[in-house]
Design goal:
By secondary structure, the protein is α/β, with parallel strands linked by helices. About 35% of the residues lie in helices and about 20% in strands. It folds into 3 domains: about 230 residues, Alpha-Beta Barrel (TIM Barrel); about 80 residues, PK beta-barrel domain-like (M1 Pyruvate Kinase, Domain 3), CATH 2.40.33.10; about 120 residues, 3-Layer(aba) Sandwich (Pyruvate Kinase, Chain: A, domain 1). A hairpin with a 4-residue loop joins strand 7 and strand 8.
Length: about 475
């Protein structure tokens, strides 16, 4: 099918999580029409059979619309949890002693099983254990090989299998559990586009995931632990994209520490030319309400002004009562922000410096040319998507039309700022590049008579990593024939 849909009228991408409220084909199509550019499948919930149906529905939507679909599978990661209680829960009182041990017997108000031997080796007196997203706080008093003695600093009710966060130490846990490995194998069999790696603490975690993925998908790293943020640049150097996962960051760090970290992660990813997603609780109230709070609207707007490539909806679309309305609202916020006359000036508060390569030099030059001559669009011919990522790093003011012979590359570009990717046959000559660029600009609505088009490609054509051509073309009246 020939792709005829025009580009979205905004630069930032919207990533929508699918779940019980949105996993059927009709709702997926409705979310797409409302503005969702990519879809997240969360492996913390559901089973492979259900996920396979969702993935098939997204690919069917791709065929129906002619527009590449982007699927991100989010691995659960090594989630730490306490065991069970004899009565299903227990009340912990502030100031009391409480023990976590290796005994699998059901717990009570004095003790509970902790089925994670790694913690017994990693914890030290004085470190904290945060239970149930930080609702309860335990302070470690002493540790042996089978017993962690604590004092309850913030009490409350603790129940079966509640999560445990350990913000003060690096826990020697592999980023990929056995479940993650099974889920990863399934995702690669389904030929998804992105794999999200959870609870990353070290660059070695990313290297192991890359080895297992073997180039079959792109790799996004979620920054949700202080240990991972401490090695931000090292980790980003070997990842393909980043996510600011503010939920767990806000548990393990004081809430006031999260906004500066968000800005730091976004700015670092932009400087390195890696797409960056801002996620968690963006329109949280829309889980139950058809309208967001004003503070939530400002939060989404801040991420867009900072230059995030994508913004994500979690429970709002996965389990909420108003999934389509949540996407519609996010789309409206993005359009409003990007319509601000100061938007591009604010975007460029973050300086992005080109690497000492021809491709980076041309991408930087393309941004300057667009601004100088008020070009109507920039057209990238790319096999791997690397040229498009370089251009997007400059945050140009004109639409970014990406032409690639590889459908997989077009799909992966669904998380890239401003990208409108089109799978199409490769070009073989300079003349063909100009003719095809003009033709595709007309077909996709990014050029009219007199439009100036900035084109980038590599010679010899079809060779990845060879970007070395920058050309400005003008659409004439004759070329508009047949497109009236």
């Amino acid at each position: 099918m020939v792709h005829t849909l025009p580009p979205r009228q905004r630069k930032v991408r919207i990533l929508a999580t699918l779940g019980p409220a949105s996993a059927n084909p009709e709702m997926i199509a409705a979310l797409y029409r409302a503005g969702a550019d990519a879809f997240r499948v969360n492996m913390s919930h559901g089973d492979h059979s259900g996920h396979a149906k969702v993935i098939a529905a997204i690919r069917a939507l791709e065929k129906a619309t002619g527009r590449p679909s982007t699927i991100l599978v989010d691995l659960q990661g090594p989630k730490l949890r306490v065991g069970t209680f004899a009565d299903g829960s227990a009340e912990l009182v502030t100031g009391q002693a409480f023990v976590l041990d290796t005994d699998p017997a059901p717990g009570d108000a004095q003790r509970v099983h902790l089925p994670h031997p790694e913690l017994f080796a990693a914890l030290e007196p004085g470190t904290r254990l945060l239970i149930d997203d930080g609702k309860l706080v335990l302070r470690v008093k002493s540790v042996t090989s089978d017993c962690i003695a604590t004092i309850v600093e913030v009490g409350g009710r603790i129940s079966d299998r509640k999560g445990v966060n350990v913000p003060d130490v690096v826990v020697p846990l592999a980023a990929l559990t056995e479940k993650d490995r099974r889920d990863l194998s399934f995702a690669l069999e389904q030929r998804v586009d992105w794999i999200a790696l959870s609870f990353v603490q070290r660059p070695e975690d990313v290297a192991e995931a890359r080895r297992l993925i073997g180039g079959k998908a792109a790799l996004l790293v979620k920054f949700e632990k202080p240990a991972g943020v401490a090695r931000l640049e090292e980790i980003l150097e070997i990842a393909d994209a980043a996510m600011v996962a503010r939920g767990d960051l806000g548990v393990e760090l004081p809430p006031e520490a999260v906004p500066p970290l968000q800005k730091r992660i976004v700015a670092t990813a932009r400087r390195l030319g890696k797409p960056v997603v801002v996620a968690t609780q963006m329109l949280e109230s829309m889980i139950v309400s058809p309208t967001p709070t004003r503070a939530e609207v400002s939060d989404v707007a801040t991420a867009i002004y900072d230059g995030a490539d994508a913004i994500m909806l979690s429970a709002e679309t996965a389990a909420g009562a108003w999934p389509v309305e949540a996407v519609t609202m996010m789309d409206s916020i993005a359009r409003s922000v990007e319509g601000d006359p100061d938007y591009y000036r604010r975007l460029h508060f973050t300086e992005t410096f080109p690497d000492a390569t021809t491709a980076d030099a041309l991408a930087e030059a393309a941004g300057g040319i667009i601004a100088t001559i008020a070009a109507d669009a920039i057209i990238c011919f790319t096999a791997s998507g690397s040229t498009a990522r370089r251009v997007a790093r400059e945050r140009p003011g004109a639409p970014l039309l990406i032409l690639t012979p590889k459908r997989e590359a077009a799909r992966r570009l669904g998380l890239l700022w401003g990208a409108h990717a089109v799978p199409t046959k490769d070009i073989g000559s300079f003349e063909e590049m100009i003719a095809k660029g003009k033709r595709m600009a007309l077909r996709h609505g990014v050029g009219q008579a007199g439009a100036k088009l900035v084109m980038m490609a590599g010679v010899p054509f079809g060779t990845p990593g060879s970007t070395n051509v920058l050309h400005v073309a003008t659409l004439t009246g004759d070329e508009l024939k047949g497109y009236a």
